[in-house]
Amino acid sequence: MRLVVLGAGESGVGAAYLAQKQGYDVFVSDFGPIADKYKKQLEDWNISFEEKQHTEDLILNAVEVIKSPGIPDKAPIIKKIREKGIPVISEIEFAGRYCSAKIIGITGSNGKTTTSSLTYHILKNGGLNVGLAGNIGKSFAYQVATENFDLYVLELSSFMLDDMFKFKVDIAVLLNITPDHLDRYDYKLENYAASKFRVTQNQTAADYFIYCADDPETIKGMADRKFDAQLLPFSIETKIEPGAYLENDNIVINTNQEHFTMSIQELALQGKHNIYNSMASGIVARVLELREGTIKESMGNFKAIEHRLEFVANISGIRFINDSKATNVNSTWYALESMSSEVVLILGGVDKGNDYGMLKDLVKQKVRSIVCLGKDNKRIHDAFEDDVHVIVNTFSAQEAAQVAFHLAEKGDTVLLSPACASFDLFKNYEDRGNQFKAAVREL
């Protein structure tokens, strides 16, 4: 049986390896160049591949196509595959067929990497045999082929969920729904929301759906959908049982009539958005009946993720924070919301149709000046010219760090939280964050 994998990144190469192990005749095709490390893996495994092109004769004879999450449905090759009636699935859907482990699936516009990493950290510390995959770390398919975990924490993007059909998540977590990637969803928020709710598809009464009761789009989306799973909401605005809520600065988690309580001061992750993330992870841990002491200890000693509100240095009384992973406006809103000092904000990159309006109040309250880091900064100037005294254009991480340092005063925070994708000047958000950190260390 011939299986074609489109895209030779982490997920594609992992899927190809699993498919070969399962006896498929596998071919990998990437329209761009393939990174050396992945090319070497494909060669070592004797998997045939092509790069910088899609040869239709070698693709349209597949019984099934595994598509990388980054390839949009409107790509010409996808249209041709669909016209021929060849099924297109995600790497997660494919790997799920060969995996009997329990699955915790975490999605949301913001916070999913943090929540997935925190959940994994708690479960691993609790002695569970657990893997971490999806949008993070080694691909799910590669781990299914090479490991033997009892359960997985999967960070699921909307693009992954779009091509998942029979796959079932035992414990589904939906953190929030805010406008992101709308260019892939006909600029309709309800289409993007529908994609996020796919995390609950195929769930039964034995499963759990954990969601934020304070998120208006989630609540709106739930109104006309039916859920078979047991519902466990979390809120910092109202008392909810069963579920999680905030009482006198304590997180209270109540599942199965047992109360877990922890002061928000003890959490390793600070800021309002991280109370939500910690609640979601805590509910998962309680559903899996982990000991209270283990959960508290893990929530207290968790190390934040690289490029997500990551402390870089303190130079002459000025803090530098790398939040390069903030590729949408909502992430930047969260970052600003958690700042307790005056901010010099580094913004910009590839704008995905951003609405900067939601940042206006926080920018007026907290931002001293804005440093733009991108090729086209006109929309940032238009959005904030009345709210800050200085907006400066820069075209490299080094220049942005230097300019921000000069604009900042003692006690300020220089915050790289771009609200945009990075592809105009950098390879990806990691590259942007790493260049920024290197530039800060040279100051």
Describe the main β-sheet briefly.
6 strands, parallel
Structural class: alpha/beta
- Shape by Cα distribution: globular
Write down the CATH topology of the largest domain.
Answer: UDP-N-acetylmuramoyl-L-alanine:D-glutamate ligase
- How many strand elements? 20
Distance between the termini: 57 Å
Widest β-sheet, arrangement of strands: 7-8-6-9-10-11
Determine the number of helices (DSSP H or I, runs of at least 4 residues): 17
Helix content: 25-40%
CATH H level, superfamily name of the largest domain:
Mur-like, catalytic domain
What's the number of domains?
3
Radius of gyration: 22 Å
Q: Write down the oligomeric state.
A: single chain
Strand content: 15-25%
CATH level-two architecture of the largest domain: 3-Layer(aba) Sandwich
Name of the level-1 CATH class of the largest domain = Alpha Beta
**What number is the mean pLDDT?**
95
Unreliable residue stretches: none
EC number: 6.3.2.9
InterPro entries: Mur-like_cat_sf (IPR036565), Mur_ligase_C (IPR004101), Mur_ligase_C_dom_sf (IPR036615), Mur_ligase_cen (IPR013221), MurD (IPR005762)
Function: Cell wall formation. Catalyzes the addition of glutamate to the nucleotide precursor UDP-N-acetylmuramoyl-L-alanine (UMA).
Domain Mur ligase central: 106-284
